[in-house]
Structure formats: structure tokens, C-alpha cells
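Q: What does the assembled structure look like for these inputs?
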Amino acid sequence: MPENREVTIYDIAKHLNISAATVSRGLKNNPMINKNTRKKIADAAKQLGYQSNTFASSLRSKHTHTLGVLVPRLNSYFMSSVLAGMENAANRHGYNLIIAQSLEDAEKEKLNAETMFNKRVDGLLISLSYNTQHINHLEPFFKRKIPVVFFDRVYPHNESTSIVINNYGAAYNITQHLIEQGCRRIMHLGGNVLRNVYKDRLDGYRQALNDNRLPVIQQLYLTSNLSEQAGIEAARYILDMAPDDRPDAVFSANDTAAVYCMLTLKAAGIRIPEDIAFAGFNNDPISKVIEPNLTTVDYSGDTVGNTAVTNLINHLKGDSNLYITNSITLRSDLVIRASSLKKQIARN
Amino acid sequence: MPENREVTIYDIAKHLNISAATVSRGLKNNPMINKNTRKKIADAAKQLGYQSNTFASSLRSKHTHTLGVLVPRLNSYFMSSVLAGMENAANRHGYNLIIAQSLEDAEKEKLNAETMFNKRVDGLLISLSYNTQHINHLEPFFKRKIPVVFFDRVYPHNESTSIVINNYGAAYNITQHLIEQGCRRIMHLGGNVLRNVYKDRLDGYRQALNDNRLPVIQQLYLTSNLSEQAGIEAARYILDMAPDDRPDAVFSANDTAAVYCMLTLKAAGIRIPEDIAFAGFNNDPISKVIEPNLTTVDYSGDTVGNTAVTNLINHLKGDSNLYITNSITLRSDLVIRASSLKKQIARN
DNA sequence: TTGTACGCGTTATCAT
DNA sequence: ATGATAACGCGTACAA
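A:
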């Protein structure tokens, strides 16, 4: 006889001739309750096939043990590492993740944020879409003091934490490295400067040129969405230039564009790094497979995710009304590989 | 004065001197309600900063518009494509995704399944961990008729849908292809045969050998977790063999192991495909970057995800008590690339 | 240590 | 077309 009502704490209570309140307490292992009754309750729960109803609980207790995660895209190596790190940390603390992607669309980001709010997530983890201009859509969170943690593509907000790496410094160093290899006409493939990550990488690149008294050449700066296609188009752009105008190095703001640019140039007979040296960003798996291996910047998505969630949960467990604003800068490492080692290769 | 109570439909009701029931209906655009009142309600809602409380609604209406997704790992190319596809389809239908990973651990899978049940997901999408032996942990879902959709790593269950590709056929074809290239000693790098995907790929490989009257050689079958490290170890295993015993081709059950095996062999002076031809599985981005490009099996994670969610939601919207069990086999394509083109390359 | 009683915010039912 | 009321399952202040 398929009874279709849920098994509730009342059923357990009736079964044991005790009150629902006691069952509720016993199930949470409240030490006030007699150890014996606790055991009896647990047994009865198992026997009756009781499964606690999280949102009935949430309705009462005002917290969901659920974190919202809002990212531009789910299917990139970096982002899936971040998610893996987040899930790990969340799980460890008894939290769950509800995940949505904006597909780089500010409007969708707004809708998703609203959904997450309506689901009453205990906190929000967000990396902004390509063209998000403001964060008005996060106001409901701010108003209700629901903590928001920005990561990677962040937005200045003095009541939220941001998790980033030093994009400026990493870009500066990688550009400096190319310069030390003898490169003088370094091209940069960048993204939308609305986003800190691309702005900072561009700034770092430019500053390195300045500090080395190299000109910043307008023609050697391309912005795009840094997709495979964008990499291929960058290569065509280079091939269309008069040979003397061509760059002797390319620093791309991500590995995907770098790699597909390399592949296209190689197919056209350009030698790497002899003719054009390369550097990317992210340490994507493809950077270790392309030949010559791509010089890049390594930073752990896993760590970003872990840090973001851990930080958020700490706020949640502490006094969330008084927590201190901060920005956490994670470590990143320059990974030097053959694609940028101009002089050394040339010596052979 | 920071009032910390939520804005509820009662506030709107009071504000407009109407009943909460009307507000509830109006907010859902119930056509029974006067268009005028509907507008007034919407306006008041905006004005008062009302945000619907999803789980109060869920408590009453018995459905959460949330789907649980339980995967072995979040951070693989295939899985992140699947998730992207799922999120897309779910979003399109007004559903959300709550995501957890088992980290290939059956115990963790069990715990996660329980959490998902407790959150009363409307349906569960699951790909089994490496060593899951049974699906007793899904019983609560079956008992409550909550639809479960298996994808990729599935389990036979006559009240659930499975989304797969024809792993057997794809493996058969790719092995046949290698044989047609003149390969006679084809090694197979496989996974745990507990999982259909690896069992079927192994079977397809073996059948192709049989059909071509080639011996199935014990030493040429290695099982592992198909990680980078496993690929490297497979290469070492090959290099340790007497040259005459070595395979003349390797068919790996995933691209990662294939690519790292290739890289290691290349570094040791083995020529690919002349000495050893290669084929993988998944059409991971690295397969397009390795040189020579890896022959592989393409199937869209995006489509898997989309299909799984769409199917699930169809059940949800239809009569979920009567839905018909089925197994959906998605298309996959053999992608032939240079790494396996033994004869052609040799001719040059 | 346990029980009573109420409320969380919404929706379904029945009535008007 | 709208209102009154109960109920969803749980947690907690207060009482015992």
C-alpha cells in the first residue's frame, strides 16, 4: 500500500509515544535529550524510513546550508577546477552548492542572482560576466546582509570579499621575461578591460614595456573573447602584417587563444619561438601539450574555490554583521616553458 | 531602521487591502485574477522589495524546481561540458541545479545522494563513481518515485532512464580503424570494468580483434584510472618491453592517458604513428593540440547533459508515475587524426 | 529531561 | 474575481 505522505517527526513521535519536539531535538543529537531516547529516536527514524525535510527546516531556521555559485561559463578548465575546489570545501562544512552560469550575459547573471536570492542561499560566490557594468542586481543580498564573495572577475565593494591573484604582477613578470629573451615587439591578446583580470594583465604588460623603454604599439594590442577562434584570428592578423611589422612575441591573456594562435602560425610556417615567442595565462592542460610547451601563469582554480568557500563559511559561522571587508590575493607562478625561450633555443 | 523581517505576501496584501491568497495568485500571473489587480500587486511587490521565498513555496507545493546532479568529478573536460549542457536546459525550463561530486568514492556518493534527497530535489541526475557496486543508496528516490536519470556511467534499473553513447560500437570501430591501418598488436588502456563505459569499450576492442582473427593478448591490456600518471606509466610499461613485444598501436579509453602516454613515448624516441599508432576517447581539447593529433571518439558532453535534463523534466511535467523506462543512446563519431594514420604517413 | 504551542511564508481548498 | 482558513514539516520559547 503506497502511502504517499512523507514520514515526519510526528510519525516518529507517535511511534514512540513522545513529543515531536523531543524527536526534533533527538535527531540533531541535542545533548539535553537522554542518550537512551536519542538512540530510540534514531532507530525509529531508520525503521520508518524518515528523511529530514531540509526546507521545512530552512523555513523555520532561516538558513539553508546552501551556497549560490554564479559563473560566466561552466565549461572551462579553470572554472571547473574552481568548482571542484568549492564543492570540496562546501561539502567538508556541510554546505551544498547551487550552480548557474551567466554565459557571459549580464542579463542572465541578473536573473540567476535573483533566483539564488529567492532560494535563500546563505551566501553567494560570483565571478562576473564579460560585460557586467554594475552590481545593482546584488543589492538584495547586500540589504539582507547575505555575504557575497567575488572571485577572479571581481568588483570593488566594501562589504564583500574578493579572491584574486596579482594579475598585474603576473603579467608584468611574464612580459619582462619575454623582454629578457630579447623580444622587442610584444603583442598582447587581451579581453574586455571592464574586467579586472584583463585590465590588470594589460596594465602589467604595458608597465613592463614602459620600464624597459619599449614603445606601446597600438597595432600590437588586440582584444577579443580569447576563444579558439579569436586565437586563430589573431594569427591571421599577424600573417597579414608586413613581415617587418610582425611581433616577435605574443603574450595572450589566456592559454586557449595563445595555443590556437600558435597552431595557426605554425601551420603557416612561422617558427616558435624563433620567429615569434609565446606566453599565455592559466596553465591550462593544453599548455603542457602544445609544442613547444607554452610559457604561462599557473594559479590553482582549486585553491581559488577553496579559499572563496572557506572564507564565506567563516563569515557565516562568525558574526556576519560585523565582518571585515577584505581582498585576498592568492599566489600565482610564472611557468617558463620552451615557447618563450628565444635566446636559448636560438643558440642551439 | 533596519527591519529584519522578510517582506511577505501578507505585507503586500495589507498594503493593498486585499487578501494574501490574491497576492499569491497575482504574483504567479494566475489569469483568474483581474489584470488590474495583477498589475497593482506586481507594483507593490517591487515597491516593497518583495522576493518570493522559494522553500516556503516548496514546503506547500511539494516541488522544489531543483535537480540534483551527482558526478564522479567536476574537473574534467567532459564533465564540465555535461554540466554546462545541463545548466542550460535546466535554466531554460526554470529549474536549478544542485551539484556534488563523489570524488570516485562510493561512500561519498551515498552521502551526497542522501543530502540531495533531503533537499527534496525533483529529480536526480547521476554518473556513478569508479567503484560503486550497487545502487541501494538510491532506494529513497525510487520509493518516492522521484525520477533518476543515469548518464555516461550508468546502472541497469528498470524504472530509470539511462543516457549513453554506444561505447561498444565506438570502440569496435576505432579498433577496426587501427587494424585497417595495418596494426596487429593493439594495446588497450582501460578503466574499471565495473563501469559500463570501460567494460563496453573493452568488449568492442576485443570483438574487433576477434572479428579480424587477431589474438587478444593479455600483456597488451592495462587497467588504471586513466590519469596523466597512468598514461605515463603505460608508456614506461611499453618501453620496458622487449622491442619485438611492443604494441604497434594503443587504444586508450580516454584521451588524457593516451596523450600522456604519447608524450612520454615521444620523449623516449618512439615515433608516432610509425612505431606506435594511437587512438583515444572523448575528443578532449588536448587531442587537437598534441602532435600528431589524436584519433578519438567525439561525443558531446553538452548533448548528454541537455538530453538528460530534458528527459528528466519531461517526466516531471508528464505523469511521472507512468513514465516508460528507456535508454537513450546518443550519437558518437570517430574522429580520425594523424596519430593513427599509419599507412598513409608511412607512405610519405 | 520532556512537552505544549506557535509560527516560518506559501499555496490549496472551499467558500463567497 | 477574491477571501478565509488550514496545512506543509520543522524548530524553539516557554512551561512543566
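Chain A has three domains: 9-52, 65-165+300-330, 167-299+334-347.
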